[in-house]
Amino acid sequence: MPALVRPLLTFMLAFMLAFATALPAVAAKPASQTATEDGVPLVIYNRSIAVFRGTFLGIGPQARAARATAVIESALSTGGQHRVEIKEHPEGRLIIMGDMLAFVITPGDIDPLSNETLATTAEKAAANLRQVIGETREARDLDAILKGVAWSALDTTILVALLWAIARVRGWLGRTLLNATERKVASIRIGGAQVIDGEYLVPVLQRLVVVSSWILVAALIYEWLSLVLSRFPYTRPWGERLNSYFIGVAENIAESILTAIPDLGVAILIFMIARFVIGFLNRFLVRLARGAQPPDWLGPDTMPTTRRLFNIAIWLFAVAMAYPYLPGAETEAFKGLSVLLGLMVSLGASSVVGQAASGLILTYTRTLHVGEFVRIGDHEGTVTRMGAFTTTIRTGLGEELSIPNSIITGTVTKNYSRAVQGNGFIVDTTVTIGYDTPWRQVEAMLIEAARRTPGILETPHPQVFQTGLSDFYPEYRLVAQAIPAQPRPRAEVMSQLHANIQDVFNEYGVQIMSPHYLGDPAQAKVVKREDWHLPPAPPPAGGA
Questions:
Q1: Secondary structure of 304-333 in the HEC alphabet?
Q2: Which of 74, 142, 260, 262 has the most other CB atoms within 10 Å of its CB?
Q3: DSSP character for 416?
Q4: Is beta strand 92-97 parallel, antiparallel or unpaired with respect to 193-194?
Q5: Contact at 8 Å (CB) between 99 and 71?
Q6: Would you state the pLDDT for residue 4?
Q7: What 8-state DSSP symbol labels residue 30?
Q8: Of residues 168 and 177, which shows the higher confidence score?
Q9: Where are the domains of the chain?
Q10: 332-416, CATH topology level
Q11: Please, are residues 367 and 418 in contact by the beta-carbon 8 Å criterion?
């Protein structure tokens, strides 16, 4: 900062000395009158005294302004008090400067857009002329010039002190903001992952602090310039115009802020009420779920989704209610943003809403749960994630499938885990053996194969069902419960079970083949009574 202060201070002092030494030259230059759409202004030493819009005794505004300039500057060059008076005249108001007629204010010179009268317009012009006379005397007073330089030097000192303070505060704020942001950002996590990367956020905040400080520096220098210009008579109009412009901008900003505060307060109140309602509703849902008789739709698996739905609905309602009160809601930018969001929703609403509705159906019907082994269409595996739009399953081969929820709700889903006792899943397989093989033997061999398979529980006991009696063979279905909950062990269990079935059938000389005939056999394919309990089938009770 000192490297910046020294050249800045040098420049400011040179600027003030230049103004002080250039004042006589400025005073010697005649003021130029430029015609505008509103008339011809009478400007003496940078200060506007009056505006000529009409004619007087056939003389146009341009000539009137030129004559008044010559008379006033001639009188000011001689020195003296130059008392200014206003006298009435049939054609208007005479502005007398000493013993000379400076100019005339006619009814045509009155601003049609103002509420002024001829008298008020003349009085304003006379007051401006008196100010020019006073500033002319001040410009010739060396003590007044030195006083202006002294005040300007004080203004410059105060400015430099403020710039130094801004630099120190900027450095302190940058360090404090850096440390606070790093701590805050590190604590914001979702699912164990940091939401915001501090390496990118901190530089942005630092640049924001720097830009804000430079904006403040520019505003201070602007105000210093207007103040310094106001210290000297011939530059005072410039300073007044700069100051009035700055004050006008500040007033507009302040007025905009003050105007927006009531509506912004209403919007904030709406969001605060929404947050209060969400907190109350979440606590109520928790108490309701923990009650003696919780509703069917409110369980441990549906609680997160239910809370999320209520929260989204309340926030959307709050945004809709607060939107008219947001600053700039009626601007074209806000309207364009609303149209863009509406277009995006309309283009993707059909599929998105359908998938979201299917996700809600799966959640509240409890068709699936994470960890269950299911079969959806031609795909089977363990449910690993249930989202709002898709459900992810992992097959026994290690493949991960993302299935749209609309497909799940539109097809038959087979759940192998829902009916099991404890953690695990159901395994089942089907074999077809000819009628000439005793059914008791087939069932015993299937049970033996299940017993030899690791992972299949002995309790509940595996069961064999005869699910059909076809023309040439009965159909046997083995159903058992397995322990493993991991996806790949189930595939291994099924593979080992099929291998054991082949081994057991081979040990007892039973061929796994479904017989088909082109014609009736010469002898009936029946099992003799003495062969009903061939090994490994247990003998009948009582030896019968």
A1: HHHHHHHHHHHHHHHHHHHHHHCCCCCCHH
A2: 260
A3: S
A4: unpaired
A5: no
A6: 47
A7: P
A8: 168
A9: 31-139, 240-330, 332-416, 425-516+525-538
A10: SH3 type barrels. (2.30.30)
A11: no
Q: Supply 48's token pair.
A: 């506007």
pTM of the model: 0.41
Pair 32, 46: CB distance under 8 Å: no
Cα–Cα distance, 136 to 390 (Å, whole number): 84
**Domain with residues 425-516+525-538, CATH architecture:** 2-Layer Sandwich (3.30)
Mean pLDDT calculated for residue range 506-532: 75
Closest CA to 46 of 62, 61, 30, 67: 30
Residue with tokens 């013993």: 99
Average pLDDT of the chain to the nearest whole number: 77
Q: Which two tokens stand for residue 319?
A: 């945004």
Contact 44, 132 (CB under 8 A): yes
Residue 44 to residues 27, 49, 128, Cα–Cα distance (Å): 9, 7, 10
Look up residue 494 and give its two tokens.
């099924």
For residues 294-330, one letter each, b for 16 or more C-beta atoms within 10 angstroms of the residue's C-beta and e for the rest, the string is eeeebeeebbebbbeebbeebeeebeeebeebeeeee
What would the DSSP string read from start to end of 252-281? HHHHHHHHHHHHHHHHHHHHHHHHHHHHHH
Rounded-to-integer distance, Cα 250 and Cα 241, Å: 14
Q: Which two tokens stand for residue 141?
A: 């007073």
Say how far apart CA 56 and CA 54 lie, in whole Å: 7
Residue whose tokens read 């014609």: 519
Helix (H, G, I), strand (E, B) or coil at 392: strand
Residue 116 has pLDDT above 80, yes or no: yes
Predicted confidence band of residue 465 (pLDDT cuts 50, 70, 90): very high
What tokens were used for 259? Answer: 């105007």
Residue 261: count of CB within 10 angstroms of its CB:
11
Q: Which residue has the higher pLDDT, 344 or 464?
A: 464
pLDDT tens for each residue of 207-255:
787 888 888 888 888 888 888 887 877 777 777 777 777 777 777 777 7
Termini Cα distance of the chain: 112
Q: Which residues of 83-101 are buried (b: 16+ CB within 10 A; e: fewer)?
A: ebeeeeeeebbbbbbeeee
Give residue-wise pLDDT tens across range 245-284. 777 777 777 777 777 778 888 888 888 998 888 888 888 8
- What mean pLDDT is predicted for residues 428-434? 90
